[in-house]
């Protein structure tokens, strides 16, 4: 089937469920969108009331994208507590309803847990007391390095209750990456666990944390959750979370926080330098996470919602914890991986817990598609209503498989484009309101004003059937506020290239109907299995190895991961390339950054294509990695054009 056939075939909207009209239909969308951009104050004044305020806001929007004065504030004079919004306000109406269903890594060893809103309240208060006793107070930073266990949610919400700022580090990151983040935000406490079971294997989180802490201040305390109970080391800075929680009080008054007080920092990769600490607010972020969760997934009370992400990524923050819990939903927290114990795990969990909305990444869909439809068909998926996709463009083949094999043609697919920086969905179809197009993120969410710019001139490209870089014209409440302690970097990164606009870093196309298609990053960021990787980070890890003189890293198309990591490596004089060295470098990058950064292909490069001024011509390296030499472009400006022939002849990606 051609892409065209796939598109035609799939453009039939999923059957509408008449028993339950969507929150927003096509007419509502048009009307509400117009209001959201024409009168943002009125629109967001109303939406701001989705959450409970201790002191109601008077001012709604006070934002500027002006060069040199980027300043973003929403609901700035209101006060609230995010944890009270996610827990306390539900206690009266749904205290006994399940808030979190925890699904363990190995279903044959452990049973799922059902944590009610009352239980959640108890545990979060206890954890807040434990953190307070360790000296954490309002505004302090707490790093969370945990498996996908309920304590991760308790820790997030306990920080929010105190008014402390959490910074989660994905449990797949290495000790070095963890240490850099602990130091980066000057955390007082790091919360970890003994081990993290995943896919039947165990990552030694506590020992990783010990290693990380060798490079941190002595005063940093370590709160350790028992997950597996296996042996770990124990030092003076360590505190036993389970024991402390057992004796802690189950009462903790939520702090009144300003709407603009930071809720969390999340480190993310960019095109240059080390990862930056993206800072999200309390008020605007929560309003946006709650609203998008309800409307984009057409979440209705009583539904069971499952986002398969890890809380180490922004998707887990907004759509496992904050959005769903603010809405009083039942949210699933999954510790495992899609293929363990077998390739039917996702569908087994969907059937077991009668999941209504299921949200995952194209890389997982492609991997499961490869395992065959029988793994899906074994399980009863009749409760599914809406399917979601996030992290990278979804190819039409994967879209159709998701639609037909998983959704049985009855579940609209929402292809949600957004970023760590945006806090919540930016471009997405809405179930029941949008005629779906496989592979397109389609239309802006309320308040989001996308513009397509000509990449070099920065001119706005009007009209349909156009392509360029994706920028956003005005602020929305979920937007990041700054880079942690580096507002200048914030302005430079996101507002430096195109004055007056937020620059996403992505290219996009606006088709003849005005629908948006994301064409991928236009900077030196690659997207590996829906995870963002700065090529500069992998390069700096490689050159930190004693035998490596120089390196250039690019992405290349990968069947399952979307993009793979292709590294060109120039060795130090006198070092010989070998398969052992290749292995050694792979292990090296894993330990420097984490398994997700491991290069898929390493090519020995006696020389890299450079201009006479010494700039590496990545365009050429990308083409070679893509196995496409027809369009290498002009190589005459290279200092030594012959290096290109050597790279082509020795490429790793032969078709
Ligand atoms: C980058 C952001 C917050 C989502 C998880 C990743 C790419 C994300 C889509 C989509 C096409 C997408 C973009 C974006 N991306 N969703 N639906 N269609 N591309 O968050 O790590 O901050 O990465 O992921 O390139 O810039 P992230």
Topology:
Layout: H1 3-10, H2 26-38, H3 40-47, E1 61-66, E2 69-74, E3 79-80, H4 82-94, E4 98-103, E5 113-116, H5 117-133, E6 141-145, H6 150-162, E7 165-168, H7 175-184, E8 189-193, E9 196-198, E10 201-203, H8 205-213, E11 221-225, E12 238-240, H9 241-247, E13 257-258, E14 262-268, E15 276-281, H10 283-296, E16 304-307, H11 314-326, E17 330-334, H12 345-352, E18 357-360, H13 362-371, H14 374-377, E19 386-390, H15 396-406, E20 413-416, E21 450-453, E22 466-472, E23 482-483, H16 487-495, E24 502-510, E25 516-521, E26 525-528, E27 531-534, H17 535-543, E28 548-558, E29 562-571, H18 579-592, E30 601-604, H19 618-625, H20 642-649
Parallel strand pairs: 4-17, 6-7, 6-8, 7-14, 8-11, 11-12, 16-17, 16-18, 18-19, 19-20, 29-30
Antiparallel strand pairs: 1-2, 3-13, 4-5, 9-10, 14-15, 15-23, 21-22, 22-24, 24-25, 26-27, 28-29
The structure holds 5'-O-[(S)-butoxy(hydroxy)phosphoryl]adenosine.
Binding site for CoA: 198-201, 315, 529, 590
Region (Disordered): 1-24
Keywords: Acetylation, ATP-binding, Ligase, Magnesium, Metal-binding, Nucleotide-binding
Please describe what this structure looks like.
The protein is α/β, with parallel strands linked by helices and 655 residues long. Among the domains are: 85-95 and 106-258, Rossmann fold (3-Layer(aba) Sandwich); 529-650, 2-Layer Sandwich (GMP Synthetase, Chain A, domain 3), CATH 3.30.300. It is built from 20 helices and 30 strands. The two termini are 22 Å apart. The mean pLDDT is 94. Bound molecules: 5'-O-[(S)-butoxy(hydroxy)phosphoryl]adenosine (WT7). The site of 5'-O-[(S)-butoxy(hydroxy)phosphoryl]adenosine (WT7) has 22 residues, from helix 11, strand 20, strand 24 and strand 25.
């Amino acid at each position: 089937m051609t892409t065209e056939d796939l598109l035609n075939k799939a453009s039939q909207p999923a059957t509408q469920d008449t028993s339950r009209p969507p929150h927003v239909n096509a007419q509502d969308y048009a009307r509400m969108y117009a209001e959201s951009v024409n009168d943002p104050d009125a629109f967001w004044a109303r939406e701001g009331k989705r959450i409970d305020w201790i002191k109601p806001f008077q001012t709604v929007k006070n934002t500027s994208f002006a060069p040199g004065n980027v300043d973003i504030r929403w609901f700035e004079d209101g006060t609230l507590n995010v944890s009270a919004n996610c827990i306390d306000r539900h206690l009266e109406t749904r205290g006994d309803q399940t808030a979190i269903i925890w699904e363990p890594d190995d279903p044959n060893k452990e049973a799922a847990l059902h944590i009610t809103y009352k239980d959640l309240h108890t545990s979060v208060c206890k954890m807040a007391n434990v953190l307070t006793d360790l000296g954490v107070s309002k505004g302090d930073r707490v790093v969370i390095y945990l498996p996908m266990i309920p304590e991760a949610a308790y820790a997030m919400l306990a920080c929010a209750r105190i008014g402390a700022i959490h910074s989660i580090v994905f449990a797949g990151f290495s000790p070095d990456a963890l240490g850099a983040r602990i130091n980066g935000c000057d955390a007082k406490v790091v919360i970890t666990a003994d081990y993290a079971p995943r896919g039947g294997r165990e990552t030694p989180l506590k020992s990783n944390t010990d290693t990380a802490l060798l490079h941190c201040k002595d005063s940093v305390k370590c709160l350790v959750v028992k997950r597996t109970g296996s042996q770990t080391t124990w030092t003076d800075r360590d505190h036993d979370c389970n024991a402390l929680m057992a004796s802690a009080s189950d009462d903790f008054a939520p702090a009144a926080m300003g709407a603009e007080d930071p809720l969390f920092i999340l480190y993310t990769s960019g095109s240059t330098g080390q990862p930056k600490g993206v800072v999200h607010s309390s008020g605007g972020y929560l309003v946006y996470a709650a609203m998008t969760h309800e409307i984009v997934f057409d979440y209705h009370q009583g539904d069971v919602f499952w986002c398969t992400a890890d809380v180490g990524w922004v998707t887990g923050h907004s759509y496992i914890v904050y959005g769903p819990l603010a809405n009083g939903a039942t949210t699933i927290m999954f510790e495992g991986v899609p293929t363990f114990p077998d390739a039917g795990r996702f569908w087994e969990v969907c059937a077991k817990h009668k999941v209504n909305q299921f949200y995952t990444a194209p890389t997982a869909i492609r991997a499961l598609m490869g395992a065959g439809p029988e793994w899906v068909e074994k399980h009863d998926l009749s409760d599914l209503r809406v399917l979601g996709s996030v992290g990278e463009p979804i190819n039409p083949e994967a879209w159709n498989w998701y639609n037909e094999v998983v959704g049985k043609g009855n579940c609209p697919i929402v292809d949600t484009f957004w970023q760590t920086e945006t806090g919540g969905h930016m471009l997405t179809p809405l179930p029941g309101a949008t005629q779906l197009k496989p592979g397109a993120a389609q239309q802006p969410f309320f308040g989001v004003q996308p513009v397509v710019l000509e990449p070099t001139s920065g001119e706005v490209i009007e009209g349909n059937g156009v392509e360029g870089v994706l920028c956003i014209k005005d602020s929305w409440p979920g937007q990041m506020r700054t880079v942690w302690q580096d507002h200048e970097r914030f302005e430079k990164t996101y507002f430096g290239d195109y004055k007056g606009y937020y620059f996403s870093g992505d290219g996009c196309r606006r088709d003849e109907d005005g629908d948006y298609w994301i064409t991928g990053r236009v900077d030196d960021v690659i997207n590996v299995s829906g995870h963002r990787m700065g090529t500069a980070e992998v390069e700096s890890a490689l050159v930190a190895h004693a035998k490596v003189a120089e390196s250039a890293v690019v992405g290349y198309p990968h069947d399952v991961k979307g993009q793979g990591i292709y590294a060109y490596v120039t060795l130090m004089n006198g070092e010989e390339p070998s398969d052992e060295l290749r292995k050694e470098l792979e292990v090296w990058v894993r330990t420097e950054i984490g398994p997700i950064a491991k290069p898929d292909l390493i090519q020995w490069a006696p020389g890299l294509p450079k201009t006479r001024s010494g700039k590496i011509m990545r365009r050429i390296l990308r083409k070679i990695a893509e196995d496409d030499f027809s369009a290498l472009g002009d190589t005459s400006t290279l200092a030594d054009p012959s290096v290109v022939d050597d790279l082509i002849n020795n490429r790793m990606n032969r078709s």
